[in-house]
Amino acid sequence: MASAAALWFGDLFGLSSGDKMSAVPLRNNKATAAAVRSITVLGATGSIGDSTMDLLRGAPERYRVEALTGNSNVQGLAKLAREFSPRFVAVADPARLNELREALAGTGIACGAGESAIIEAAARPADWVMAAVSGAAGLKPALAAVDRGATVALANKECLVCAGDMFMQRATKAGACILPADSEHNALFQALSSGNREELVRVIITASGGPFRTWKAADIEQATLAQALKHPNWSMGQKITIDSASMMNKGLEVIEASYLFALAPDEIDVLVHPQSIVHGMVEFSDRSVVAQLGAPDMRIPIAHCLGWPDRIKGPSARLDLAKIGSLTFEAPDFTRFPGLRLAYEALRTGHGATTVYNAANEVAVAAFIAGEIRFGAIARLVEATLDAWMRATNKSPLSSADDAIAIDHEARNKAATLLPQIALKAS
Ligand code: NAD
Ligand code: MG
Q: pLDDT digit string (tens) for 275-291?
């Protein structure tokens, strides 16, 4: 993998060394993947983790599992460990170490607990790491894999939104290879190699529009948790499902695309596409638009990352467009879904603002799940936190994970302080 990992997307796009660089590699100059790959899955017990383990299960002769991690679901983690025999298993909740030890008794598998154990799992020598912890908690573990120059399939978009420039610079410095696992970004990754930087006009990421796509603003305001969790196409973890309903997920993805591919905000468009078949498109100067299509099944982009630089046989259903019949597209509504507008504003403001956007959204989603705020208040809390942060002076650039985490904590505290007044305020 070393030769492929040393080739940057920036080379393809002819960026000078002073420009933003991306550690997303060039598909055309591929090397061949090792015969047996060692694999670590961070967030193995989650939705992306589940899809990843399913792919590994399909070709056990090709993969050896180095480490698996989870947050607190010890029994689920231990079940996976017994099936895949990793060398190391880590649970984030330090109080669960004994439970994990007991669940793995007699297997000879080493285990650990706490944030340091999750980072240790990422730092162990696996060729390929799936970064699928949810939220900003995924930043330090993903960086531990990046810093040792691993190939990292990145599902955890929050770590880019929280510290994108720094993350990509560290990846470039370490010779790490970042493979976009998020479906839209994976689609862009596949389409971008059809041209070069001067020829690129814009990228388009699609959005299903979520369960409230056709709802009136007043109804979205009052939406319940059960309604927000009913995603029309994708089956995902709770946080990202709520983010899809608010379109904050698309906002996070606009920011993610900017950092991954070194794109300006004006080069990234969002298009609502309720069928979720076209995941991303790239428009070039000759007006060719290159798209990637597939069923809404995360095993497809994950299989692309797992096979890269080759393609593996995937277990997902084949795309039957005749059966689907029609694909439709709509412009996004920035008024009913203000989270999307706020993402562009945060991205134009710069690094720290996207960190605040993400942190405030995590606080707002947790408060919505806890029944403390209405659905419509999620975006209001993010906006109020961003406004408060913009008014504050002393915005230094992010140069380390700790800088990003400090802003993340500051924003969480600010959001928590603003929460009671936002909760009382009607739309
Ligand atoms: P999930 O909630 O189903 O799973 C999250 C995983 O992270 C679990 O294994 C959980 O145990 C672990 N985890 C949670 N908090 C942790 C902590 N503090 N420390 C260590 N581990 C922790 O989430 P998901 O839907 O699988 O999403 C994971 C990431 O992938 C998110 O960043 C999400 O935005 C992104 N993503 C998900 C999908 C999808 O279809 N589910 C698609 C694209 C991107
Ligand atoms: Mg996505």
A: 999 999 999 999 999 99
